[in-house]
Design brief:
By secondary structure, the protein is α+β, with helices and mostly antiparallel strands. The protein has helices spanning 2-27, 40-53, 75-82, 100-107, 117-120, 128-135, 164-167, 195-213, 217-246, and strands at 60-64, 93-94, 139-141, 149-151, 168-177, 180-190. The chain is extended. The structure holds heme C (HEC).
């Protein structure tokens, strides 16, 4: 009786101790470092790629079109080059063209809003930007999937490879690794861009998404300085006031 219980406890202990390790091992993914930059030319190129290729399905619904003035664009340029949704104005939020209900019917899942994706996807393997940078470069052909595409770091993803005409087509060969299957991707059909050019374009896009996740970063920093300055002035005034109040007491 006693030995049975001890054995059970041992089993339980093993599960508690090793299960997290196993879970980590199966999720271990290699992420490539995203060359994120705040260079305005890069952010503008990224914005263009985003509105042309992603906004059909995904929004940046915390960002208004005219926030892009902060990356060096005029309202006229924004209106002419970056607004493709009928009826949308420069002051509007960047919400997608697709209806959420349709998207769910077509892809089985709703394309998530991407405003915070570069923050939400950060993990012990890398930043959220690294995750998105790797994700957009790791689609491969998979005839088993309804879209015809699969993704190395997002298995059985519901999103088709929308940038395939630029990247071309990758196919995967599977080998047995220590922790299960290991995929090896190779470019079997080149796209319009070379590998280096495609990586650059994705870096532009990811830099833009990082900016979109925090478009008021600069404003917040200057507001912080203003608040500190205000408190310093307040300190001086209250100190003078204190001297004045106490001058007759002693
Ligand atoms: C045809 C519609 C469609 C287009 C266009 C599209 N996506 Fe997606 N995307 C989806 C769907 C659907 C999902 C959800 C996939 C899932 O959960 O299986 C998704 C998921 C994602 C995710 C993962 C989000 C997360 O954290 O789970 C990222 C990142 C992403 N898309 C980026 C992009 C970018 C960048 C573009 C433009 C280059 C783009 N998508 C264009 C449909 C689309």
């Amino acid at each position: 009786m006693m030995t049975k219980m001890i054995q059970r406890l041992k089993g339980l202990l093993a599960v508690v101790l090793f299960a997290p390790g196993l879970a980590l091992a199966s999720e271990a993914v290699h992420l490539d470092k995203a060359p994120v930059s705040t260079d305005q030319a890069r952010l503008q190129r990224g914005a263009k790629i985003f509105v042309n290729n992603c906004m059909g399905c995904h929004g940046l619904s915390f960002v208004r079109y005219n926030h892009m003035e902060q990356i060096g664009l005029t309202p006229e340029e924004i209106e002419k080059n970056l607004i493709f949704i009928a009826g949308a104005k420069v002051g509007d939020l960047m919400i997608p063209a697709i209806q959420a209900a349709d998207a769910k019917r077509w892809f089985g899942v709703r394309p998530p809003d991407l405003t915070l994706v570069t923050r939400a996807r950060s993990s012990e393997f890398g930043s959220g930007a690294d995750w998105v940078y790797t994700y957009l470069r790791k689609f491969y052909r998979d005839p088993e999937r309804p879209t015809g595409w699969n993704n190395e770091i997002f298995p059985n993803v519901g999103m088709p490879h929308v940038l395939y005409e630029f990247q071309g087509e990758q196919t995967a060969t599977v080998t047995q690794g220590e922790h299960g299957d290991v995929l090896q991707l190779s470019l079997t059909k080149p796209g319009k861009l070379s590998v280096e050019q495609y990586d650059e374009a994705v870096a532009d896009l990811v830099s833009f998404l990082v900016w979109a996740g925090d478009p008021s970063a600069n404003f917040r920093k200057s507001l912080g300085l203003f608040v500190l300055g205000f408190l310093a002035v307040l300190l001086v005034i209250t100190y003078l006031l204190k001297l004045n109040y106490w001058k007759d007491v002693h």
